[in-house]
Description:
With 64 residues, the chain is an alpha+beta fold. It is 42% helix and 12% strand. The protein has a two-stranded antiparallel sheet.
Amino acid sequence: MVKKFLDERAVTYDLRRVGADRDAAEAFRARGWRLPPVVEIGEDVVEGYDPDRLEALLDGAGGG
């Protein structure tokens, strides 16, 4: 859902699959996150699918 949300808004992003990429999984755990998806926008982090928060952060970052 997050990928579709970002794609529909033509947002450029890096996709890291924690289930298939050991380095991504280690970085994910080191940050204390529990479950994907996680989106970092600047200094802000959105865990899970929260379209309202994503939209607000993208608007603030000039990406929406």
